[in-house]
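Minutes, project check-in

Agenda point 3 was the complex the collaborators sent over. CS summarized: two entities, 227 residues total, and the question is how they sit relative to each other. Sequences were read into the notes so everyone works from the same version.
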Amino acid sequence: QQQVKQSPQSLIVQKGGIPIINCAYENTAFDYFPWYQQFPGKGPALLIAIRPDVSEKKEGRFTISFNKSAKQFSLHIMDSQPGDSATYFCAASMEYGNKLVFGAGTILRVKS
Amino acid sequence: GAGVSQSPRYKVAKRGQDVALRCDPISGHVSLFWYQQALGQGPEFLTYFQNEAQLDKSGLPSDRFFAERPEGSVSTLKIQRTQQEDSAVYLCASSLRRTDRLAEYFGPGTRLTVT
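CS then shared the predicted structure for the full assembly.
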């Protein structure tokens, strides 16, 4: 059962563009929503995370937008650079839970 | 060490063989997690330890999968009688505090190929 649906599967943008990756969840008990970045041959690395009591969170060039009523959240990467080319995963977890439920991933390529 | 380390990085096993995958978490980290990542997919939770106690093993796909962390540091994931569907990258992750119940720092993974 896929509890977190992620789109698009892949994305190509020009340097300086703003890629947007979207995720939708089904389980209303989820209350923690992180994003991970993964380079080939490496494990996922935590980028930024949000809880449903806020609608937006910014850390550097990365922004999460959260829509609780629609059960959707998205990652925006401002002023994207070729070094941002990686696979991005959204995830969700329940309060006091210990397991992350990941989306299927988005392969991002930033062209120079 | 500087991060979570895993060994071997690559493992090829013939169907039916047993394998053991090792995880060295960041020193002092209380919580340890194992995830399975199939090709082109997101990681899927397998099991969670707090020190030496295995508090959640709900994600282990069958009784062929077994994990242990006997001294609360290094962990081993063992797969008995490997099958082709076990082919995946096995990720280990750790977190510092007892209250950090979610994976924070991931290792590079062990890529298991069952032929």
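Noted in discussion: Chain B touches chain A through 26 residues (CB under 8 Å).
Follow-up: revisit at the next meeting once the mutant set is ready.
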